[in-house]
Amino acid sequence: MKLEGVTSIQVADETFVAAAPESVREALGDRSQWARWWPDLELTVVEDRAEAGVRWTVTGPIEGTMEVWCEPVMDGFVLHYFLHGEPTGALPRRPRALYDELAETNRRRRVAGKVMAFEIKSRLERHRSPGDPAAAAEAGTTGGVRG
């Protein structure tokens, strides 16, 4: 059973990262990480937008598109994650089972995106104390406690 007129897998998420937007290029550009974050997906770069992110086509158990877009905001950036696609395997024919399977697939893909985003956030903010500006993270200092 195929849903008509909609994309079955729709994931959209965002995470604020208190680091300079250009710092994401190295973290996101490491292709070995892609296989860890999305081990069952084959990714083909459609557009490498440097610090603005990456767009891919996706094949494997899902066919579609995926994007990480980094939007400069305040002293950091919002990492937006999008995945849109269709499952390639057989789907249940009963409506309730179909709904349950698609909901679980969406949940798993949303969690994978959040793992990726939090790993990047943790890596880029590792020298920053909570409440300190992103500039402290760039300089490699820990900053101080804000009063």
Structure description:
- With 147 residues, this protein is an alpha+beta fold.
- It has a domain at 20-89 and 108-139: 2-Layer Sandwich (Alpha-D-Glucose-1,6-Bisphosphate, Chain A, domain 4), CATH 3.30.530.
- The protein has helices spanning 24-29, 31-37, 95-124, 134-139, and strands spanning 9-17, 42-48, 53-59, 62-73, 76-87.
- It has a five-stranded antiparallel β-sheet with strand order 1-5-4-3-2.
- The longest helix is centred in the last third of the chain and has 30 residues, at 95-124.
- The chain starts with 8 loop residues before the first strand and ends in an 8-residue tail after the last helix.
What is the number of beta strands? 5
Largest β sheet strand count, sense and barrel closure: 5 strands, antiparallel
User: What is the end-to-end distance?
Assistant: 59 Å
Helix and strand pattern: EHHEEEEHH
Q: Assign the CATH superfamily of the domain at 20-89 and 108-139.
A: START domain
What percentage of residues falls in helices of 4 or more residues? 25-40%
Mean pLDDT: 86
Q: How would you write the strand order of the largest sheet?
A: 1-5-4-3-2
Quickly describe the structure.
This protein has 147 residues and is of the alpha+beta class. Helices cover 33% and strands 32% of the residues. The protein has a domain at 20-89 and 108-139: START domain (Alpha-D-Glucose-1,6-Bisphosphate, Chain A, domain 4, 2-Layer Sandwich), CATH 3.30.530.
Quickly list its features.
single chain; 147 residues; alpha+beta; Alpha-D-Glucose-1,6-Bisphosphate, Chain A, domain 4; five-stranded antiparallel β-sheet; 4 helices; 5 strands; 33% helix; 32% strand; elongated; disordered C terminus
